[in-house]
Amino acid sequence: MCGAQTLAWLHIQDFELDAAFELGLLKGKWMRAIAERPERWLLQSFERVSSISEAMLGRAINKGVRKDCAELLPNWVDLSAIYPQTGVQRLRNPYRQELGIKCEEIVLLYSGSMNKKQGLELLVATMEMLRNRKDLVWVIGGEGPGKASIVDSTQDLPRVLHVELQPYDRMNDWLNLADIHLVPQKKEAADLVLPSKVLGILASGGTMVATSSANTTLGRIAEQTGRRVNPGDAKALAKAIAELSDKEEERRALGERARKIAEENYGINSVLGRFESKALSTLEHGGTKIHNHAKNSSSPES
Question: Which domains does the chain have, with CATH numbers?
Fold first, then answer.
């Protein structure tokens, strides 16, 4: 739309088209082939294409993006706004007061959208397996088309609290409410999306249990900061949650590691600094293209 005198950079947060087909929201090989044809043309028309994980970047390359045009550009998190609460500050977390959660109870928090790619039905099965653990409190926060089903499925389960989406100015308290963060994800969405909440969990020094394949960004993060289990395995998920619930010192050490990962890889200055460097490099190498086009064009240079 802007013409050949413009250098264009496309950043991909989610491969929504692929996710829709692989999760069964859209169906039909012919329909997918028709939809992917203009997508491939569009991807190949940019000087730079970036995405937020290595797996997603690999998918872009498989769609025809040249390797020398592909850049890894993860999301960033404000490390001064999201940070760990420890000791008394953690025990006095305002959400614990508001929700009536006792100091000795373990909070398992799912926070975010509720739709098909999360596979939230797995959480319900896991809650059922651990229903006799009186020390566990399940807090489910968020909105989406799957919420009504989750609320209905957990009515007879003990200590399951449903909370609306929370405002950003309370996000640090909200994330620090959790003793263990729950990050379920279906196998079909493994290299199509990377939940944005993961960076907030890391910055808050949170411990997580995620359902993800081993060779994904989410899987590697979960293995370093908690537990990773295979998607769809409720028994393994229940076991991982039970193990971490009984190991307070390990949770503390994993939380410290999570914060360090956030500081080293996902701070705003680190991520945007890399973006600035790559953007300047793109301009430098793309200057010849613009100059040649302007010289050969009958219209005035702009």
Answer: 9-76+267-296 (no CATH), 87-265 (3.40.50.2000)
